[in-house]
From TrEMBL:
Any GO BP annotation: protein ubiquitination
Name of the protein in its database record: DDB1- and CUL4-associated factor 15 WD40 repeat-containing domain-containing protein
One Gene Ontology term, aspect cellular component: Cul4-RING E3 ubiquitin ligase complex
TM stretches of this protein: none
PANTHER family xrefs: DDB1- AND CUL4-ASSOCIATED FACTOR 15 (PTHR28541)
Domain DDB1- and CUL4-associated factor 15 WD40 repeat-containing: 18-227
Signal peptide: none
Lineage: Eukaryota, Metazoa, Chordata, Craniata, Vertebrata
Amino acid sequence: KREHVIRQLERIKISGQLSPRLFRKLPPRVCVSLKSIVDEHFLCAGHIFLGFSKCGRYILSYTNSNGDDDFSFYIYHLYWWEFNVHSKLKMVRQVRLFQDEEIYSDLYLTVCEWPSDSSKVIVFGFNTRSTNSLLMNMMMSDENHRDIYISTVAMPPFMYCPSCQDMAIAHPGDPNAKCLQHGFMLHMKYQVVYPFPTFQPAFQLKKDQVVLLNTSYSLVACAVSVHTSGK
């Protein structure tokens, strides 16, 4: 006999674990087609949808674009969409990843959040393949090195704080006019060598607001946080 869902939830509160699964399959009433909540022109624009943020409020997607010739570089954007099962997704924020970097090959992206910190996301971009184009041979002095790109971006606020409201008044019409805490972006880049260590979020993001980087030669711990004025 299947255990009642209320009893299962009580067990989660006590033990922190759920065994067996809460549902054998998802109820149809909570299943929606992506095409039913996303406008067609966003799908045609090449949006790659990643799933929900940890808070469950947003769905994340990204796009990449480049020109038709070998001298064009790739540009990546990350998007937050407010989710409502009964209406279309509403875009609430768009940012360019890895700003000021000239990226001449497609990247494999990993989008992560820290275990208990829902105020920001961290995005890793890996150059996973090489190319024999003349431009890449010119740009890469040593094919045994691979570039790793990182962008840490603030999550959109649930509601505008007083500082965000002041920024919106000072910069009318600018959707990215937010305070430092709710609008910051941090971009980094480093190189790795053979055997090209992979990124392991469960280990390298184990501590909130700290990212552990394996640069092939050393381990570097970087703390990422925003301090309000006066602190």
